[in-house]
Design goal:
The protein is mainly alpha-helical and 217 residues long. 69% of the residues lie in helices and 0% in strands. The protein contains 10 helices and no strands. Helix 6 packs antiparallel against helix 9.
Length: 217
């Protein structure tokens, strides 16, 4: 699950992450007060332009997030995000009759619609809620129609950085869900291995053994 620190009501998690990082990091990897203040400000700023993390910042935070302490922190955010997404996106979409029918006949299309709606809500809650409402009021929408909706109503009136972030997020999500659909619904060796790891081993996050053999997960 993605957690956008720049969205309203979520910035406190960035402070919590940096606090956990400071407790975990050895002295040579600590951020000083000025560095931490600047990093926190960028983490809590919406959009992808002008808020980039340096290579050093990324490497340090990634190392922390791969650790036991970091993964515990991430799992806590995952739990919150699942609850939030289910209440705002998953539950209302699960009650739409035409989407239920689409999931039965074309599960790959239903998965794509749910995924990009969830992604939009994560990036901009107001626009995501508007898309949920549009899906509820519709008699049926294709994946392409939802994609176009996001590229129009989903970004109209937003600043250029936010528009670019939403469009790139939409496209990345569609590529990702396309891969998952191929693995979930395919018949080849890759699909069989995926289904074995994810379903039979009850390992949906592919997290088992990650600390010892991250490249194998």
């Amino acid at each position: 699950m993605q957690w956008d620190f720049g969205q309203p009501g979520r910035g406190a998690a960035a402070e919590e992450m940096l606090r956990h990082y400071a407790e975990w990091a050895p002295p040579q990897q600590q951020f000083n007060h000025v560095e931490q203040t600047n990093l926190l400000q960028r983490l809590q700023t919406p959009g992808q332009v002008g808020n980039d993390l340096s290579t050093v910042e990324q490497d340090r935070l990634n190392e922390f997030l791969r650790s036991d302490d970091g993964r515990t922190f991430v799992q806590g955010l995952n739990d919150q995000q699942v609850d939030r997404k289910w209440e705002a996106v998953g539950q209302p979409l699960s009650q739409i009759i035409w989407l239920q029918d689409l999931n039965r006949d074309h599960p790959e299309s239903a998965a794509a619609i749910v995924a990009v709606t969830s992604k939009l809500y994560n990036q901009n809650q107001a626009r995501g809620a508007l898309l949920v409402e549009s899906l509820q009021q519709s008699d049926g929408m294709t994946t392409d129609a939802v994609r176009e909706w996001i590229g129009n109503q989903g970004i109209n009136g937003l600043n250029p950085a936010a528009r670019a972030a939403i469009v790139s997020g939409r496209d990345a999500t569609l590529r990702g869900v396309g891969l998952v659909n191929a693995l979930e619904l395919g018949q080849g060796q890759g699909s069989e291995e995926w289904q074995s790891k994810v379903r039979e081993a009850d390992n949906p996050a592919l997290a088992q053994g990650f600390n010892n053999e991250p490249r194998a997960c």
